[in-house]
Each structure stands twice: as structure tokens, then as C-alpha cells.
User: What shape does this take?
Amino acid sequence: MTAIQDVTTIVSVNWLYEHINNDNIVVLDATLSKATERGRHKLNDYIPGTRFFDIKDTFSDGNAPFPNTMISAKEFETAARELGINTNSTIVVYDVYGIYSSARAWYMFRSMGHENIAVLNGGLPAWNANHYLTEEYKEYKGKKGNLEVKYNDAFFKDYNYLLKNLMEVNKIIIDARSTDRFKGHVPEPRPGLRKGHIPNSENIPYGNLLEKGFLKDKESLQAIFEAYKNKDELIFSCGSGVTACILALGAEISGIKNYSVYDGSWTEWGSLGQLPLQRD
Assistant: This one.
């Protein structure tokens, strides 16, 4: 079949079902277990042809002190090529929750200059709800890819950047954690973290962008980000850099382009006692 030249930021399961056999389609499962959960779904429940994008053990820096830390461009390129990903690949990425860590994979590829990637709206639950075929996982044994990455470091920010910009009224830090976690009303799921939030940051829980596992429509997302559309920069944070990327996905679809992700997020900020915090 013919190759797909480009995809939108998000695609439906119907779209994937119709295009899954196109020459350059690569389907990735980027499921990452939530901090409160363990394990993955059953091993015979994958979209056909899936290759596993292992955020935890392959596409994160295992030597970093905090989880899900971005790896180097060279490491990313090498690991992606092992999955058979080419420069002209059209990637569709999903997870087992609907939309969760798939957004992180989407954001990582875009930071590496690969724009031809879309998140599967509704993920595996939506695929199964349509009674589309699934299969047991088969480790990818095919030809190595030729992906060439061009890393853009503007996609990720560190805590020093945030510290320098805490008082900047046109650079807004937005936290994707739940409101109770943001306000410091409940303990963090990771032991040893302080409760609270980055000073002057604002809160949009990532669940506000979702409805029954699907990303809300463009108009709803635009309404959520309306107050921020004229800001110089939005910096998204969360627990460990995963759900911040759901905010990035929503911002992108709503038409906002001036955003980045704080990679260390609250796992880093809440661990470093010298950094200021607020509680409500």
C-alpha cells in the first residue's frame, strides 16, 4: 500500500484501522504504569504489529536520580532505530489507559525533530471497544531503521530555568497533577516528596483535558487554554514529566505553540529541599 506522508496530532482508532497496513505506518505501545499501579495489561492484547516503546527502561536515563528523565539524542536515535523507525515513518502511539504515557512518547519524538507522529485517541480501550483484532506481543525482529534525530532543547526545561522565571508574569508554570496534590492536601504517591507546588504555578489537572479516556475536542481544549493563549511561554509540569505532556498535547491542538515541559517535574522539585514551594 502507499505510504502516509503526514498525520495530524491525534488520530482515531477508525483512522488507524483503515491505514494500519500502509507501508510506512509504525504502531507503538508506550504504556508506562502509573505511580500507583504495577504491571501491564495481558500479553495477548496488542494492536497488530505493535512495537513496544519502553519509556521506563529504554527511553529514560537509568542513571538519573529522577524517573523518566530524557535520554540523549544519540541514545534516542539508536533505540528508535532498533524499533525499525525511519525518518519517513508515520508513527501512531497508544497506551492501555486511553491517553496517558502515549503523550509522553509523542512529545519525545517531536523534541527529536520527528513531527510525523500522532497519538491514538482513546488508546487500546477504544480499539477494543470497536472489536478490532488484537494479538499477542511479538518483539520486533525486523530491519533497523534510519531515523536521524535533530534534538531541540527548547522542548525541555530544568529547575534552574524555572527558578529564574518564577516571577515572570508572561511565563506561566502549569501543573498537571490533581488539585489535591497541587494544594498539598494529600501525600505524594512517591515516598519522600514534599507536598505542595512550585510558587506562582497554576493548576490544570490533566484529567480536565480528557473525557472517558479520549482527548476532548479542539473547541473544549481552546476554552481550557483561553487565558494563556497570549502568554510568552507555558511550562508544563506534573509528577514525573509524563502527564505534563498531555497538557502539551492539548495546547498543541488548541493552537498554542509557545510551550515546554519541565522534565524533572515535582519528583525533582519536591525532592530538593532548597527549592521553594507553596501550599494552599
